[in-house]
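Handout, page 2. Input:
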Amino acid sequence: MPSGSLPFVEVSGSPRERGRQYGEAARDRVAAAIEFYAAAFGEATGMTWARVTELAGRWEEPSRDFAPDLMEEMAGVAEGAGVTPRDVLALNGRGEILYEAASSTAPEDLERPDGCTSFAALPGASGDGHVYCGQNWDWRDGVRDTLVVLRVVQPPKPTIIMHVEAGQIGRQGANSAGIALNANGLGGRFGGGIGVPQPLIRRRVLDADRLDHALEAVLRSRAQIASNALITHRAGFAIDLETTPGAHGWLYPEDGLLVHGNHFESFVPPAIAATHRPMSADSLYRVPRVRDGLKPLRDSGDPDKSRELIRAAFSDHLGYPESVCTHPDEGRPAVRRWATLVSSCVDLTAGDYDIAPGTPCDHPYVRAPWNLYDGPGEKGPQ
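Output:
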C-alpha cells in the first residue's frame, strides 16, 4: 500500500470478534504504531516500550469500569494483531501516558496537544441546506502510515465510520444515527488521579443513538486529560464541549458556524487559571482563519461547491508550516515533526464520509465506500 494511503476496514460481530477482525486487517499498521511510539517515548522520556506498557496498566481498571465491552474489543485487536493487550491499551492511552511522562520531564514538544481544527456548518451557513462537519487532524507525522478508516457494524448500537490510529478503538467519526464527533487536544496540567483514556470516551459518543446520550458520554465521564469535543447532529445542531478532569465549558454556533482549535475559548479552567497560557500558539490564528474561510459557504448552493470551499478553508497556509494545513518542519527531529494526517468532511445530510489522506492542499477528498446510512435497520437521513 502506498505511503499516506488509507485502508478501509469493516468489522462486525461481538466486541471480541470485531476487535479480532480489526487487528488482523491492520496487523502491519499496529506493529508500525508500536514501533513509532517506542521510538517517540524513548526519544522524549528515555522510557522503553516495556515501561510504557507497564504504565498503561494504570488505566486498565478505570477503562474496564467505564466500558467493559471496549476492553473486550481491544483484547480482540491484540489477538488479531499478534500483540499483547497492554500494547493495545498503550496505543489507546498514548496521550494520557505522554502527560504522565511530562509530569517529570516536561519538554515543550512532549506536552503539545494533538493539534486539530474542527468545524460544523449548519443549514443556515452551508449554502446548500446540508449539515457538514469535519476537521484537519494534526499529529506526529511518523504515524501517517498507521491510520485506518473503520466501519463498525454493532447492532443494536449505531453503525460507525471513523478514522483512527491502528489499534485505537475511537477517535473522530460519525454514526448512522446522524451524530458526529470531532475532537481536539487542549493541553494543561490536571492532577487528581487516573481517568478514562480519550479514545474510549470518544467511542462512547459515537456509540450513542441519541444526542443526549452522546453528550452524557462526555459530561458523565471522568477524563484523564483535557480535550475538546465538537458534537454535530444531522438535524442541524452543534455544540462544542471544552472538557477537563474537572470543570467543563461549552460553545454554540454563531451564524450557523462553529470552529474550534487547541485553546480554551468558553472559559479558563479554575484548576489552571493562575498560570494558564494557550498550549498551541498557532491555534490562535487557525480558528479565525477557518471561520473566515468557511463564510463563502453561504453562497455555494451546491454540495460539490460546498466541499471544495471546505477543502480550500482547510488548505490555509498562514504561519506555514504550523498552519491550518500543517506540513512537517524538516528542522525538527523525525519523531517530533507534525503534519495534517487527515482532513475530513462529513455530510450528515447525505451520509457521505469524505477524507483526504494527508494535507488537503495536495490531497483531494476520497469518499469512503460506505454511506453512513447504509445497512438494514438504519434510519437513513431525516
